[in-house]
Design a protein that fits this description.
Strand content: 15-25%
Shape: globular
Number of helices: 11
Structural class: alpha/beta
Radius of gyration: 19 Å
CATH architecture: Alpha-Beta Barrel
CATH class: Alpha Beta
Bound molecules: ligand PBG
Distance between the termini: 25 Å
């Protein structure tokens, strides 16, 4: 059944289509030209203008959606730039919504870490620990601001307990009943986020082990998913993807809502570095990575290769 391309095509089990790919994008406040991210060759911090162009290109290539991250010029202890309607992320959401309307699915990172001067995903208490419940109130405001700026889906990625429920209530109370929640349900405290920290100029010292999951644990991922679905998640996410394909498979088998996986910065950087050295065939490797994530059960994949891969698959 493998002897010809036609036979292999006939019995192939897993599809990979552009509409299943979501492009994460970075936009930097005050940038007058796109800034390369050294650890993620080919990925940049966009200006408002270059963001718009790259978004149009991605949608033209057929990608299923865009996930936006903002890099503010100034940070503070509570991450107020993430909530401010004139903050870079909300401004960029407005730009893209007016450019693209409903022709794509616009998503935003609903998390404070890009906007806090300490780099944590939440606000800190007097002892310097992340204060879960105080953070929830800010997430609620942030989600409403993103919905008002044009996000179709908000993406709470801070792993605070109760974040999905609080955001759902706040959106409904503000009249945004149609804005959905893509919940980062099972997010691990991973070393593979390294390049992303450069991508967003992260101020973090230390780690996120008090709120992100322990890489050795599987059971709690299923518990996190269950809680998020009960609280109103419209789709859930597993992150990272490649070292967690077993978690992804279990999530896909158990989840009543669509499942996303985030093919994160470190996974991107490893392949790009090896390909640049001539150690891996770049295109084949990328497509194998993406098909593996689909095979493990992801309905959609966030990947920095989304536009390029969509063009190959077209
Ligand atoms: C948190 C956030 C992170 C990523 C997406 N959202 C970083 C973290 O939790 O440290 C990582 C994405 C990637 O590595 O590609 N707002």
């Amino acid at each position: 059944m493998r002897s010809t391309a036609a036979l292999r095509r006939l019995v192939s089990e897993t599809t990979l289509r552009p509409r299943q790919l979501i492009l994460p994008m970075f936009v930097a406040e005050g940038a007058d030209q796109p800034r390369p991210i050294a650890s993620m060759p080919g990925v940049v911090q966009h200006t408002r203008d270059s963001l718009r162009k790259a978004a149009v290109e991605a949608v033209g290539a057929g990608v299923g959606g865009l996930m936006l991250f903002g890099i503010p010029a100034h940070r503070d202890a509570t991450g107020s730039g993430g909530i401010d309607e004139n903050g870079i992320l909300n401004v960029a959401l407005r730009d893209l919504r007016s450019e693209l309307g409903d022709s794509t699915v616009l998503m935003a990172d609903t998390c404070l870490d890009e906007f806090t001067d300490h780099g944590h995903c939440g606000v800190l208490d007097d002892s310097g620990a992340v204060d879960n419940d105080a953070t929830l109130e800010l997430y609620a405001e942030m989600a409403v601001a993103q919905a008002e700026a044009g996000a179709h889906l908000v993406g709470p990625s801070g792993m605070m307990d109760g974040q999905v429920g609080v955001i759902r209530r706040a959106l409904d109370e503000a009249g945004h009943t149609g804005t959905g929640i893509l919940a980062y349900s099972a997010k691990y405290a991973s070393a593979f986020y390294g390049p992303f920290r450069e991508a967003v100029d992260s101020q973090l010292k230390g780690d996120r082990k008090t709120y992100q999951q322990d890489p050795g644990n599987a059971r709690e991922a299923l518990r996190e998913i269950e809680l998020d679905v009960e609280e109103g998640a419209d789709a859930i996410m597993i992150k990272p993807a490649l070292s967690y394909l077993d978690i992804l498979r279990q999530a896909a088998d158990a989840s009543p809502v669509p499942v996303a996986a985030y093919n994160i910065s470190g996974e991107y950087a490893m392949v790009e570095a090896a390909a640049a050295n001539g150690w891996l065939e770049r295109e084949r490797t990328i497509l194998e990575v993406l098909i593996s994530i689909r095979r493990a059960g992801a309905d959609m994949i966030l990947t920095y290769w989304a536009t390029e891969a969509a063009a190959w698959l077209d």
